[in-house]
Predict the 3D structure of the following.
Amino acid sequence: MKKDRPESRISLSVMMTCVVIGLVLTVLGSVLIFFIDFYQSSMEQNAAITSEQAVVQVMNMVEDYTAGMADSMRLISAHMGKPEEERDEFFQSFMEIRPDVVAVTTYRTEGELLNCWSNGLKRKSSILQNLSYMEEPEGKGLRISKPHVETLFEEYYPWVVTICQNMKDGGGEELQVFMDIRFSNIASYVDDVGIGQHGYCFIQDTEGNLIYHPQQQLIYSGLKEEMTGELKSLPDGSHTRSNVIYTIHTLENCNWRVVGVSYVDELITGRVEGMVRICVILLLLVLVTAVLVGILFSRLFAMPAKRLTGAMEAFEQEAENFQFVTVRGASEISALSDSFGHMVVRIQELMEQVRQEEITLRKTELNALQAQINPHFLYNTLDSIAWMCEEDRTKEAVEMVNALARLFRISISRGHELITLEREVEHAKSYLKIQNYRYKNQFTYEFDVEESCLSYLCNKITLQPIIENAIYHGIDRMVEEGCIQIRIEEEETAIRMTVTDNGVGMSEEQCKEILHREAGERTGIGIKNVNDRIRIYFGEEYGLHITSELDEGTCVEIRIPKLTELE
C-alpha cells in the first residue's frame, strides 16, 4: 500500500510568483545598467571629439613645419645649379638664418659624399656610419627619414630628421641632396599638446615606425609599449581599444601620422560620477531584493530540488547499493521524490534479474563458441589421418594420432577455458606437425617466443584456428614453399602474439569481413570465434587485428592482457 504523503502548505505557483517578482526587479537593474552604458557611450563620443581637436591642432603645426622644410629644399634646388662660389655663399647665409638646419650634404647617386655645409661645425675625417644617408630612396619627391643621431661632426651629436631630394648641379650631374634638421622644434610642438591629465600625442609613419613620442626613453628602455603595429592598419579617425581612445590623422605632404591617445575614464569620470552613484544605489536595492527572493526560493524549492538531484546522481554512480531517503518540500517535489523512490526499487530488482540472465547467457555463448571450433578442427585433422592411411603411411599416421591425442588433452584442459601460453604453444606445434605431414613439407614454420611470456594465461585453442586459416587460405594456393612465423612477445600491459605467412594475402575488405562473418559460414568460423572469445573474456580493447597484402602475405595480431594463474 502507498503511504500517505503529507501535503505541503506552499505550492509551486506561489514560489513561481516570487520568482517573477525577482525577475522584474532584475530587469529593472538591467535597464539601469543599460542607461549608464548609453550615457557612458555618449561621453566617449564627446571625449573622441576632444581628442580629435587636439590631434588636428598638432597635425596642422607639423604640416606647416614640414611645408617649411619643403620650401627650404626648393630654395636649395634653385641655387644648386649656380656657380660654386655663388652656391657656397648662399649656403653660408642659409645656415645662419636657419639655426634649426644642422647640415646640408650632397651625394652622387652611388652614395659618394661630395659636399657638406654647416654653420661652423667640424666634419669628422673618418665617418664610421652615416645615419643621415638613405640608401636607394624610392621616387623623386621629398622624403623624410626617421629621427636619428647626427654622426657627421666631431663632438656634436644632435637628434635630427633628414630631408632628401634628387637634384642636378650646374654641370647637369644627378645628385642626392640631404638636409638634416633638428627634431627639437617638432618635439616641442607635440609635447605642448595634452589631452586630459594623462593623454598625449605621438608621431609614427605609415609603416608603423615610431617617429617621435613624448615618452620615447620609456619606450626604448622597454618600460612602455605602444600598439604601433595595429595602429598602422587603422584608417584615419577615432578608434577605441579597451579603455583608450586612439585618434589618427595622416599628414598630406609626407608619410607621417599623428596619433592622439586619451583615456576614457579620465575624460568621462567626472561627468558620470553623479549618475553612477544614483544607479549604484538602485542596483543595491535590486541586489538586496534578489538575495531575499533567492533565499526564499532556495528554502522552498531549490534546496529540496538540489537534494533530489544529488540523490539521482548518487543512484547513477552506484545503483546497486543505493538507498534512497525521501526528500520533502513543495507538493510537486514530494510527488517527484516518492515516484523516484519507487523507480529506484524497481530498477534495482531489474538489474539483479538482468545480471543473472547475463551470467547464464555468457556461459552459454562461450560453450557455443568452443563447440564451433572443436568439430571444425577435428574434421580437418581426421581428414589428414585418413589420407595417410590411404597412402599406407601407417607410421606417420600413428604419429599424427598421437599428436592429435596431445592436442585434445590440451584442448580439454580439465574443462578450463584459460591455459598457459606454454601449453598453447605446445598445442600449436602439435597441430603444425600434423599438417606438415599432410602437406608433404610444403611449408616451414618457426616459433619466436619470449620465455617471460610462457607463464601467462590465454584462451585455449587461440593460435590453431589462425594457423589453420593461414594454411588453407594462404599457403595451400601457392606454388612456392610457404612459411609461417609465430611470435609471442611481452608489452607493458599486454601480450602480443603474431602469426605471419607469406601466402596469397587478402584485400582490406576480406580482412574486415573475416572478423564479422556470422556463424554458419564454414570459411573463417575459427578466426571469428577466437576474436569473440577473447573479447568476451577480456574486453573490447583486446582481440585480433588482421593486416594483409595481396601476393605478399597476411599477419594476424592477437592482443591479450597479462594474466597469471594467481590473478
